[in-house]
Amino acid sequence: MSSPADEATPDLDAFYDDASEAGLTCPVCGVLVARHGDFPRVHWDWHEASNGA
After folding, report:
1. pTM for the full predicted model
2. Closest to 22 in 3D by CA, of 33, 8, 11
């Protein structure tokens, strides 16, 4: 059984477009996001924030 936190956590591998060799492309704003570290998670959190796009 999944917890509410698991349901709120998106599958970031499926969210970003990885066709670019330069990085992951955000389908919401089109920005390139680094593949390594926490960059994909941080970018997603920015969209989820009240001041995010």
Report:
1. 0.71
2. 33
For residue 32 the two structure tokens come to: 């390139």
Nearest to 14 by CA among 44, 38, 42: 44
Residue 11 pLDDT > 90: no
Q: What does R_g of the chain's alpha carbons equal in angstroms?
A: 12
Answer whether 34's CB lies under 8 Å from 23's CB: yes
Spatial contact of 24 and 14, defined as CB atoms under 8 Å apart: no
Distances (CA, A) of 6 to 23, 34, 43: 25, 23, 18
